[in-house]
Each structure stands twice: as C-alpha cells, then as structure tokens.
Design goal:
Elements (H helix, E strand, L loop, with lengths): L4 E4 L7 E6 L20 H15 L3 E2 L9 E3 L16 E4 L5 E6 L3 E7 L5 E6 L1 H5 L2 H13 L6 E5 L13 H4 L8 E2 L4 E2 L1 H11 L7 E3 L23 E7 L1
Parallel strand pairs: 3-6, 4-5, 9-12
Antiparallel strand pairs: 1-2, 2-13, 5-8, 6-13, 7-8, 7-9, 10-11
C-alpha cells in the first residue's frame, strides 16, 4: 500500500496538516499512484486510493486537472472508486476535516492556509499555470471569497521539477522576455521554484510565510513520479486539511 509519506506543518498554525506522498519503496507491484489511467492497472489504483481515503477518514475533494486557471470552492466530495469529473486545477474550502487532494508528476503542488487555520487551498500548477498567472488569480479569488488578506496566508510548494531539469527549448514561444529573469540560456532551463515564490509574493504573501520542499521529481524519480522521466508514469498526492 501507500508508503513514502512526508508530513508538513506550517509554523504557528497548529490545526492545519499537509501530506505529500511519492512512490512506494516496499513493493515492485504497486508504485503508489492515486490517479487513474496513468501507467498502472486500475485495480492497483483502486487499492491505493481506498487505503488513502480510509486513512484520511474525511471527505476528499478532488478535481479533474486540465492545466487551467479554474478554482472551485468546496466541491462535491470524490469517492475513492470515482474518477474526478469536475474540471479545474484549484480547490479551496472553509470546512473542517475536508481533505483537498492535488495530483502531480513534475508539476508543482502548492498548498495554502490562512493563519487562523480555518481556510485552505490546494493548487496544481504546471508551467502553463505559472505562465498564465494562475497563482495570482487563485490567491485573489480565495481572499475575495472568504474576505481574507493575502499577507495572512502561508504556502508550501511540494516535490516537483527542479531548476536544473525544467528544460524549455522553445523559450521565446512558450514564455517570452517577461520570464527571462528565471531562464538560463546555456542549459535552456527555467527555475520554476523561484518563479513560483516570486508569484506568491506578487499575490501578496510575505516572504517568511512561503515554504518549499526542494525535492526534484525527475532527479529523484525512484522516489517520485516524473512525467519528464517517463510520460506513462503515475501521479502522487499532495493533501491539505484542517481539524
């Protein structure tokens, strides 16, 4: 069953919990993926999801991720045997004991919480999300919906594609000069981690409230699913909830 779990807690927010998981270490048959149709048999995916959902013991809110800028507030819960059908790439709630689940394999999972521990948000941010300012839009919508201040938010970025592995050979077409500060011409790589930190600060978060788990999914592909390493790979879960 699921293994390789990394727990994270924001400093000063005692009731908010974050969980990042990767590939299993204890079996060759099940790598721990929780997304359907992503390189493993659906029977194994069902077993993984059932185990995870039962361990969480709370409604799990999940979306069908499409690299969009769509944020949903407390959508209908997804059951472990269901494929999420509601399209989007962000989920937010003010409901206690509701787990927000994001699936990734190189893209950045970004989990956010208000300092009082009663509002949370989870974002799936691929490079297109960075390019389209999804972070800024989502933070603005989150704060407007719940009447919050961005300076009172905390954020953590989970394991994702590292600065030395985020290669873009068509930088001019895909990004443009506005992003050249984060691009290294010699290696044709873009530092998505630093860009995300910059965009979170642009959105109004304080520098000291922004955290990052600097594990590169491609470099650490034995521990984490990486689409750049294998485009038929599974997906790992990033989850946030509050008591």
């Amino acid at each position: 069953m699921l293994d390789n779990l990394l727990f994270f807690q924001f400093s000063g927010i005692k009731n908010v919990r974050c969980l990042f998981h990767g590939k299993n270490f204890n079996t060759e048959n099940s790598l721990g993926s929780i997304a359907f149709d992503r390189g493993e048999e659906n029977k194994i995916i069902l077993e993984n999801r059932e185990y995870l959902f039962k361990k969480l013991s709370m409604p799990v809110l999940e979306v069908h991720q499409i690299h969009s800028s769509i944020l949903h507030f407390t959508p209908k819960q997804t059951l472990y045997a269901e494929k999420a059908s509601l399209e989007g790439d962000g989920i937010a709630t003010n409901s206690a004991k509701h787990a927000l689940l994001i699936k990734t394999a190189d893209c950045q999972p970004i989990l956010l919480a208000h300092k009082k521990g009663q509002h949370i948000m989870a974002l799936h941010v691929g490079w297109r999300g960075n390019r389209n300012d999804f972070i800024l839009q989502a933070v603005a919508e989150f704060c407007k919906e719940y009447k919050l201040l961005a300076r009172d938010l905390f954020a953590v970025r989970g394991p994702s594609l590292g600065p030395q592995e985020a290669e873009f050979t068509n930088f001019s077409a895909e990004w443009g000069d506005a992003y050249k500060e984060w691009y290294t011409v010699q290696t044709q790589t873009l530092d998505l981690w630093t860009l995300t930190r910059h965009q979170l600060k642009q959105a109004g978060l304080l520098q000291e409230n922004i955290y990052g788990i600097d594990f590169c999914t491609k470099t650490m592909s034995k521990q984490y699913f990486s689409h750049r390493e294998n485009n038929q790979t599974g997906r790992q879960a990033s989850i946030i909830w509050f008591e």
